[in-house]
Specification:
By secondary structure, the chain is α+β, with helices and mostly antiparallel strands. The protein contains 16 helices and 18 strands. The longest helix is centred in the middle third of the chain and has 23 residues. The relative contact order is 0.10.
C-alpha cells in the first residue's frame, strides 16, 4: 500500500457543469504557469525536460529497497499524477508511466523549500504530467519513492481524469480509448499483445521464406472476397474507386510475377454490419504459397497462431480476460462440412442435393436465405447444426463450389472446393484454399458472380479483366490463407472485436 493510498471513492461522477468549473480552474493555472515562464521556454507545456530514466527502470533497479532505506541514486523522471494527497509539510503523489507502472513522489518542505511546496499544492492536479528530480528512496512504509528536490509541470491537464477507482462504461472505453489506456491494465495489455502477435506473425512468415508486400487500398474494381465495398471518388482521375475488401487478387498477381511466398498484413474495408466479431474496417493477414495447397496452408496457419500464443502468453494454453483457459496446442481437428452437417442433422446432403430439399430443412429450422443458392443453404445449415458444438480449434474443410468462386475444385469430390474455415471459440478465425489458377475456369466463375451482381447481390464480384490477364501468363499451383488480426487477438485474449481494436469505429 502506498503512503498516499486513499479509500476507494464511491462518489458519483461529476456533472457536466462541475467538469466545466474544474476546467476553468485548470485553465487559470495554465495561464499562471505560462505567465511565470514567459520567455523561458517552460510554462505549462515545456519543450523538453532533463529526464534521465523511467518509472519502470527505477522499479526494476531499486524495487528491493528495504523500508526507510536510501539508494544514493539521483534521477529525473516524469509521469502522470493519478493520485495525490497534500498535507502541511509533505505532499504525496502517485506518478504513472505509459505502461501503467507507478512510483510515489514525495514533495517535502525540507527538500524543496516553502515556495516550491506551495506552488505544487496550488498548481498540480490529478491528470497532470509532472517531472520530478531527486533521490530514489523507500519510505517508512516500504513504498518505493522519489524524494523530490526539484519539480516541473510537464503537461497541464485541462480536463479532470475520470474516477480511477470506477470502471469506465463500454461506451466511454470505445469513444475515448485514451482514457481507457490511462485507467485500465487490460486495455494497455491488449495493445502490447497485439504488437507481440503481429511481430510473431511476421517472424513466422520470415522463417518460412515469405516476403511481405503492400497492395493498393484504392482500387478501380473490388474483388478478392464476397463483400459489399465502400465507394469513394477520385477528383484527380474523375472516377469512382473502391476501398480494398481484400488484397487477394493483387497478391496473386505477385505470385504470377515470381514471388512464390508472399503475404500482407492489410487494412480492409467492408461496408457491412458491425457486431461482436465484425468491424467495417479491420486488419487482415493474407498469404499465398506457390506449390502448396489447402493442407500445407492449414499447417502454416496453425503454426502462425501457435507461435503468436507463445509470444503473447508464453504458452499454447492462453488465458482469456475472464480467466478461462483455452488450449491452442497440439494438432487441430480437420472435419468435412458435408459429413459433419449430415451427422449433426441426420441428413444425407451432397453437392447434388436439390435446392428444394435444402430450403425445406432451412424453413423448418427458421433459417432465411436472401439470395438462395445451394452453397449458402449448406453453409447456413452447417452453422446452425454444427458450429456451436465445436470446442477445440477445428479446420472445417471442403465447401460448396458456388460460394467460393476463387477456389480450386476438389481433386476427388465433385461439386466442392478445396477450402477450409478455421473455427476457434465458436467464431471463424481464418480461411484457406487450394487456389484456382486456371484462367478459363476463373473467367467462368467471374461471369457467374457478375450475374448475381446484376440480380442485386451487392456482395458478388465483377469480372476483373486485368486479373484474368495476369492468370493467363501462368500462376503456379498455390495455397492461400486469410486471417483477421482482430480475430487472432480475440482467440488469444477472449475479448470482443471492439476491445482488440485500439480505436474502433463507433456511431
Amino acid at each position: 500500500m502506498a503512503d498516499n493510498d486513499q479509500p476507494i471513492d464511491e462518489t458519483p461522477e461529476p456533472t457536466a457543469e462541475e467538469i466545466n468549473e474544474q476546467k476553468a480552474v485548470r485553465l487559470a493555472k495554465r495561464e499562471r504557469l505560462q505567465a511565470e515562464a514567459a520567455g523561458l521556454g517552460g510554462g505549462a507545456y515545456p519543450v523538453t525536460l532533463p529526464v534521465t530514466t523511467t518509472i519502470p527502470e527505477v522499479r526494476a533497479t531499486w524495487g528491493s529497497l528495504a523500508a526507510d532505506e536510501t539508494s544514493g541514486e539521483i534521477v529525473g523522471l516524469a509521469g502522470r499524477v493519478v493520485n495525490q494527497r497534500n498535507t502541511g509539510k509533505l505532499c504525496f503523489a502517485v506518478l504513472q508511466a505509459g505502461d501503467g507502472s507507478r512510483l510515489q513522489a514525495m514533495v517535502s518542505l525540507a527538500s524543496v523549500g516553502e515556495e516550491s511546496l506551495q506552488r505544487w499544492k496550488e498548481l498540480v492536479d490529478l491528470g497532470d504530467h509532472v517531472f520530478v528530480h531527486g533521490e530514489v528512496i523507500s519510505s517508512r512504509r516500504g513504498e518505493l519513492s522519489i524524494m523530490v528536490d526539484d519539480w516541473q509541470v510537464a503537461a497541464k491537464a485541462i480536463l479532470p481524469l475520470p474516477n480511477m477507482y470506477k470502471e469506465l462504461s463500454e461506451e466511454t472505453r470505445m469513444r475515448s480509448r485514451y482514457l481507457d489506456l490511462i485507467q485500465r491494465e487490460q486495455a494497455r495489455r491488449t495493445v502490447v499483445n497485439r504488437a507481440k502477435a503481429t511481430a510473431s506473425v511476421r517472424a513466422t512468415f520470415s522463417k518460412n521464406g515469405f516476403l511481405e508486400v503492400s497492395t493498393p487500398k484504392l482500387q478501380t474494381m473490388h474483388g478478392g472476397a464476397s463483400a459489399r465495398p465502400f465507394v469513394t471518388h477520385s477528383n484527380a482521375f474523375d472516377t469512382d474507386l473502391y476501398l480494398s475488401i481484400a488484397p487477394e487478387l493483387y497478391l496473386k498477381r505477385a505470385v504470377v510475377g515470381g514471388i512464390d511466398r508472399v503475404y500482407e498484413i492489410a487494412r480492409n474495408f467492408r461496408n457491412e454490419g458491425a457486431d461482436s466479431t465484425h468491424s467495417p474496417e479491420f486488419e487482415m493477414i493474407e498469404a499465398y504459397q506457390a506449390y502448396g495447397d489447402y493442407n500445407t496452408i492449414a499447417d502454416l496457419t496453425q503454426q502462425l497462431i501457435q507461435d503468436a500464443a507463445l509470444a503473447t502468453n508464453g504458452s499454447h494454453v492462453v488465458t482469456w480476460a475472464d480467466g478461462t483457459e483455452f488450449d491452442l496446442g497440439g494438432q487441430w481437428d480437420r472435419i468435412s462440412m458435408y459429413e459433419s452437417l449430415n451427422e449433426a442433422a441426420g441428413t444425407s446432403f451432397t453437392p447434388s442435393t436439390p435446392l428444394e430439399e435444402l430450403a425445406a430443412l432451412a424453413a423448418r429450422e427458421g433459417i432465411s436465405i436472401t439470395h438462395p443458392i445451394h452453397g449458402k443453404y449448406i453453409e447456413e445449415l452447417w452453422e446452425h447444426f454444427v458450429k456451436g458444438g465445436l470446442t477445440r480449434p477445428t479446420f472445417v474443410k471442403d465447401f460448396p463450389l458456388d460460394t467460393s468462386p476463387l477456389t480450386r475444385e476438389h481433386r476427388s469430390i465433385p461439386g466442392v472446393v478445396e477450402k477450409w474455415d478455421l473455427y476457434v471459440r465458436g467464431f471463424e478465425l481464418a480461411t484457406g484454399y487450394s487456389e484456382l489458377v486456371d484462367p478459363v475456369i476463373q473467367r467462368e466463375r467471374f461471369v457467374a458472380q457478375a450475374a448475381l451482381a446484376a440480380a442485386g447481390d451487392d456482395e458478388a464480384m465483377r469480372v476483373d479483366e486485368d486479373f484474368l490477364r495476369a492468370l493467363e501468363f501462368g500462376m503456379p499451383p498455390s495455397g492461400g490463407m486469410g486471417m483477421g488480426v482482430d480475430r487472432l487477438l480475440m482467440a488469444l485474449t477472449g475479448l470482443g472485436i471492439r476491445e482488440t481494436i485500439l480505436f474502433p469505429l463507433v456511431k
